[in-house]
């Protein structure tokens, strides 16, 4: 089967995290989104946690407005639908809602939904998203035997939680993890789901993952991408500041 090229959705949580340490509005989350989209990102992802440690409610709304100027690019909002996610979904109707079973105040996402346990409470919320015209992706551990159940509750996609692969990358366990993710992706595709992936993907581990794991429609990447953006930008930025200093000395 031939699949389309994987879409890159840039997660801007960490831009907001830096912004929140001052009251100056910089770095601007909307401006970051526009720069990412201009550079070729297929979409923008945010995970507005209830404690607003990074993305805040106003960011979700401002990004929704900004994305309107980018037809064909996608807005993906992640979160727990039993906490604050559904309020955002109802208000801005993103292209995709990614349901993540995080506790309030959780350090970062570290597991997916479990079936059959989560099935009945998820079903009506997935149906509500569909009624709003919003695609639903369920954040899932890479367990092949869970995929049919994710489809059965109405999900359109699963997002495979890639941290175990990222942690194994470069160790003897890497191949085993790749096989595990490939099995889970195949099971999801066979069940009629599209496959997303994310968490701790980076410039080293991404290409081997996409070569081995079939049919990945979208990767959402934040932490490593924002860290890379800082490092790749240091040289030009220091030069720009030195030019400001030179300006004071007539250079
Ligand atoms: C669902 C997922 O894997 C990411 O959204 C991750 O939860 C990022 O959240 P933080 O940026 O708060 O770690
Ligand atoms: N869904 C995963 C995501 O949006 C970004 O995760 P990370 O790259 O910040 O680990």
TrEMBL record:
* Enzyme Commission number(s) of this protein: 2.6.99.2
Reaction(s) catalysed by this chain's protein: 3-amino-2-oxopropyl phosphate + 1-deoxy-D-xylulose 5-phosphate = pyridoxine 5'-phosphate + phosphate + 2 H2O + H(+)
Its localization reads: Cytoplasm
Instruction: Give, as one word, the top-level EC class.
Output: transferase
Residues annotated as catalytic: 47, 78, 199
Positions of 3-amino-2-oxopropyl phosphate binding: 11, 22, 200, 222-223
Keyword list (alphabetical) reads: Cytoplasm, Pyridoxine biosynthesis, Transferase
Residues that hold 1-deoxy-D-xylulose 5-phosphate according to the record: 49, 54, 108
- What GO cellular component entries does it have? cytosol
Query: Which is a Pfam family this sequence falls into?
Result: PdxJ
The processes (GO biological process) annotated in the record are: pyridoxine biosynthetic process
Site Transition state stabilizer: give positions: 159
Q: Which GO terms describe its molecular function?
A: pyridoxine 5'-phosphate synthase activity
What pathway does this protein act in? Answer: Cofactor biosynthesis; pyridoxine 5'-phosphate biosynthesis; pyridoxine 5'-phosphate from D-erythrose 4-phosphate: step 5/5
| Superkingdom of origin organism | Bacteria
Q: Which SUPFAM superfamilies match?
A: Pyridoxine 5'-phosphate synthase
| Subunit relationships | Homooctamer; tetramer of dimers.
The record's HAMAP family line, in alphabetical order, gives: PdxJ
The family line of this record is: Belongs to the PNP synthase family.
The record's listing under PANTHER family reads: PYRIDOXINE 5'-PHOSPHATE SYNTHASE (PTHR30456)
- Describe the task this protein carries out: Catalyzes the complicated ring closure reaction between the two acyclic compounds 1-deoxy-D-xylulose-5-phosphate (DXP) and 3-amino-2-oxopropyl phosphate (1-amino-acetone-3-phosphate or AAP) to form pyridoxine 5'-phosphate (PNP) and inorganic phosphate.
Which named protein is this? Pyridoxine 5'-phosphate synthase
Question: Which organism encodes this protein?
Answer: Hydrogenophaga borbori
């Amino acid at each position: 089967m031939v699949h389309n090229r994987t879409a890159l959705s840039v997660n801007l949580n960490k831009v907001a995290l830096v912004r929140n340490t001052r009251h100056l509005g910089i770095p601007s989350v909307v401006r970051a989104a526009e720069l990412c989209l201009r550079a070729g990102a297929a979409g923008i992802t945010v995970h507005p946690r209830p404690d607003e440690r990074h993305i805040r409610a106003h960011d979700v709304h401002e990004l929704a407005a900004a994305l309107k100027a980018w037809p064909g690019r996608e807005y993906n909002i992640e979160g727990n639908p039993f906490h604050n996610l559904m309020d955002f979904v109802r208000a801005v109707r993103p292209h995709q809602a990614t349901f993540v079973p995080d506790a309030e105040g959780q350090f970062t996402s570290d597991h997916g939904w479990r079936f059959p346990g989560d099935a009945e409470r998820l079903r009506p919320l997935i149906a509500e998203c569909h009624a709003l015209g919003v695609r639903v992706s369920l954040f899932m551990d890479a367990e092949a035997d869970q995929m049919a159940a994710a489809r059965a509750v109405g999900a359109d996609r699963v997002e495979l939680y890639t941290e175990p692969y990222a942690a194994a990358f470069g160790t003897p366990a890497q191949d085993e993890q790749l096989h595990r993710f490939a099995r889970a992706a195949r099971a999801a595709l066979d069940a009629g789901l599209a496959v997303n992936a994310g968490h701790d993907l980076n410039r080293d581990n991404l290409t081997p993952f996409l070569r081995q794991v079939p049919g990945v429609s979208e990767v959402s990447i934040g932490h490593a991408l924002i860290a890379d953006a800082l490092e790749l930008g240091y040289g030009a930025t220091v030069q720009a500041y030195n030019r400001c200093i030179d300006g004071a000395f007539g250079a």
